[in-house]
Amino acid sequence: MSSDHIEDIKHDLKDNGWFFGKSLYTLEGFEALGQRLGEIIARTDISIDETRSVYQVRTAGGLTLHMDDPPARYIAWLGMVTPEQEEPTKFLDTRPILEMLSPEELTRIKSIQVKDDNGLIHPMLADDGVFHYVPWMIQMQTVTDNDTFEALAHLQSLIRKATRTCHTINIQKGEILIVDNTRVIHGRDRIAADSQRHLKRLWIK
Ligand SMILES: [Fe+2]
C-alpha cells in the first residue's frame, strides 16, 4: 500500500468523516490498512446468526443509525460475501447536524450521558467534539430539565430528517468502508434472516 493512498484515506476521513474504497482489498491489505490508521482493538466477523442475536450485529433486524462503543475511533468494514439485492449499509456525518444546534442546545446535549455495551458511561457530546450517539442507550435520568429534553428532541428530529437522505453503500466483495466513529452514525434496514452477507470489521483506536 502506498503512503499516498493512506494519506488520501486520512484526508477523506478528516474532511468527510468517511472513506469508501472500491479497489478490491485482500484481507491482508485490509488489515495492513487498519494498522496504518491506528491500533486495531477488535476484529469481528459480521454475519447473520439469529441463535446469537444477543449480539446486535448478528440479527437480521434493522439497525437504527448509531455509533459503536468508544474507544473505537474508526470502524472499517471489508466486503467478503454480499448477496445481490441486499440492504445497503447506511451512514451519516453528524457534524453538520451538530452545527445546526445553538450554543445553549450544545451545552444541554453535553450534560446527557450514554452507556456503552460494557456499562461505561460517556457524555453524548464531549468538550473536544467527540459525539457518542446510541439512541437506545441514552440515560434518560440525565435529561433532567425541560430545556435539555427540548435540545435532545431537536437533535433527534434533525437526525431523523437527515436519515432520509443519508449515504447508502452495499459493500461488495473486496470493497472497504471506513467511518470516523466519533462523528458518523451507521446502520441498515432489515435483511433476510437467511442472508449469507459477510463482512469483516475492525475497530481502530
Ligand atoms: Fe454498529
Task: Give a written overview of the molecule.
The chain is built from five helices and eleven strands. It starts with a helix and ends with a strand. Helix 4 (103-110) packs across helix 5 (146-163). The model has no long low-confidence stretch (mean pLDDT 93). The strands form three sheets. Strands 1-9-4-11-2 form a five-stranded antiparallel beta sheet, with helices on one face. Strands 3-10-5-8 form a four-stranded antiparallel beta sheet. It has a two-stranded antiparallel ribbon with strand order 6-7. A hairpin with a 5-residue loop joins strand 6 (113-115) and strand 7. By secondary structure, the chain is α+β, with helices and mostly antiparallel strands. The chain has helices spanning 3-16, 27-37, 95-98, 103-110, 146-163, and strands at residues 18-21, 40-47, 63-66, 74-81, 89-93, 113-115, 121-123, 167-169, 176-180, 184-188, 198-204. The longest helix has 18 residues, at 146-163. It is globular, with a radius of gyration of 17 Å. It has two domains: 3-92 and 173-183 and 195-204, no CATH class; 95-162, no CATH class. Bound molecules: fe (ii) ion. The site of fe (ii) ion has 3 residues, from loops.
